[in-house]
Amino acid sequence: MIKLRFDRWKTNHLTSYDLLSIHLIPTVIVFLTLMIIIGLSWRTAVRDVQKSQSETVFQRSIFVETTVKQRLNQYDNILRAGVGIFNGSFSVSRDEWRRFIGSLEINERFPGLLGVGFIEFISPSDLDGYENRIRNEGFSNFNISPREPTRDLYSSITYIEPFNSLNQPTLGYDLYSDPVRRAAMEKARDSGRVSLTDLVQLLQDKDNDLKHGFVLFHPVYKINMPLDSIEQRRAAIIGYIYTPFRAEELFGTIFDSNDPNFSFEIYDSTSDKNEFRLFSQNSSDVAENHKLVTRNEVTLFDQLWMFQYSAKDTIVPRTLRERPASVAYGGTIFSLIVAAGVYFLLQKRTKALSHKEERKLQRAKDDMLSLASHQLRTPATGVKQYVGMLLEGFVGEMNDEQRDILSRAYESNERQLRIINEFLYMAKADADRIVVSLQTFDLAELTRDILDGMRTEIADAGHSLKFIFPKTRILVKADPHSARMIIENLISNAIKYTPARGKITVKLKKMAYKCLLSVTDNGVGIERSEQKRLFRQFSRIPNELTKQTTGSGIGLYLAQYLARLNGGEITVISIPNKGSTFTAIFNRKNVRKVTENTKN
Questions:
Q1: Which of 180, 222, 288, 360 has the fewest CB atoms within 10 Å, measured from its CB?
Q2: Residue 350 counted as domain residue
Q3: DSSP 3-state assignment of 288?
């Protein structure tokens, strides 16, 4: 592309757009190449940060889940030890149970555990005997609760240690009567393993409405009874070793660190609703600015818990976090510096050549202007006069065939003169030597005069013409000669690029400070991507009618130049195969003052 632009420079002239491209294209290529490298480096840096963040969150999640599992396994071991006490003796007294639990030091070693107890199953026929037995141990007001409604099987908390003020009211309570606890008890009975309840309100927390508690059950079977099948285990069950604990106290004692960049929450469900939340650490602080959220589902004693982890991007060191930005900013600045160096180097390299070629081009234009004025225009004007005299009958009458040939010659000469005049105006325009004389005139009258002169051309092309003018005069402030060239060019293009029997509409619209003259056709139309080429020198848009019409490719260029020179503009709206509308805008800014002064 650059070579072609230099070739065109030598043969014709180089536009400012071409000159900018010569400098810009290599600069953009260098800049984009560097930016691609920077982009890849930035992406790698971002991935390193994300990988480090994910690995940090993963390691911490492993620690949290492992710690929870270890603590619950410790609770399981306590229950198993209690089962061992019952398996080693046909009868365990209350005092023996107290000494056993006291030796475990659960308050010091296992914070969160409210106690460890023994639950005993009782048949309805043995209820009275069981209650009397416990009363004889010193609990004169002992009763199993709830006693109603009547059930096929009862359970009762027989032992609970430490037997403090928090645990004393639970003595004799039938946990088997509660559906949630019963489900866990039956699961433990049938499996022979420890079982964990869903989230429940502990008996110890009835007065404070706390619901974030759990109960662990381990089955106790009759000694020397077969336990191979579910039926055998159901027949051999006598009770449970159990422990209640509060989730908040349990997890709070395990995780006492306070990292402002990391938080986690534990839910007794796959839902993250508050009603299922067991524990939360730093969630309110981190959640507002968290960037990383990870959820893990963990099964503990057949219960599904969800661990949700949140972390800020600051969980990794600052130097690592700032690396992508450093790569992006530093790389962009470096790329801009290198690209700017390339641009200015190319600009300096071509500046001298540009000035030289411009001087040569200007001399060639001046020579062409002189040639067009003296060598081309003068003979063509003479031919026009002589042919016109023949057509007027100055040398006698002619037959129809002779008149037709001369008319064609006259029209060809007219086209040649128009092309000569366009080149002449283009040369003057490029040299900024066109001077306009702004006058106030009736644009509607000028347009009618132009249409009258072009009716034959429109009729020969088989087109129909429609014009829409206001009833009042349309005064504009412009150069009449420039306005004529603009209008003739727009109508001529509509004639050329509209298939036979087309429709051409010329419309004038008066606005407050502007006047719009639009020429609409139903011709071949112009692709949107091609419309920017319309007003360039020597530019002809290829279409099905281009080869059938003649043209220099500078008509619209001159029309736009003259429109702007008169303070206006030419706009275009076009749809391929539907047609085009070219609108010339004329200035009426000073018309009101002119007309008022005229009236005065």
A1: 288
A2: no
A3: coil
Query: pLDDT (tens digit, 9 = 90+) per residue, 216-244?
Result: 999 999 988 999 999 999 999 999 999 99
Of the candidates 310, 179, 300, 167, which has an alpha carbon nearest to the alpha carbon of residue 243? 167
Domain that holds residue 527: 434-599
pTM of the model: 0.51
Does residue 195 share a domain with residue 126? yes
State how beta strands 514-521 and 579-587 pair. antiparallel
**Based on C-alpha coordinates, what's the Rg of the chain?**
50
Contact in structure between 329 and 42 (CB atoms under 8 Å): no
Comparing CA positions, the residue from 322, 396, 336 lying closest to residue 35 is: 336
The domain tally of the chain equals 3
Query: Could you tell me if 284 and 264 are in contact, meaning their C-beta atoms sit under 8 angstroms apart?
Result: no
Asked if 520 contacts 507 with a C-beta cutoff of 8 angstroms, the reply is yes
Please tell me whether residue 441 adopts helix, strand or coil conformation: strand
In the 8-state DSSP scheme, what is residue 194?
A: -
pLDDT(295) > 80: yes
Q: Return the closest-CA partner of residue 193 out of 214, 175, 218.
A: 218
Co-location of 232 and 265 in the same domain: no
Candidates 570, 447, 456, 549; CA nearest to 499 is 549
**DSSP track, 1-27:** -HHHHHHHHHHS---HHHHHHHHHHHH
| Residue type, position 148, single letter | E
Q: In what order do the strands lie in the sheet with 195-196?
A: 154-161, 116-122, 237-246, 213-221, 195-196
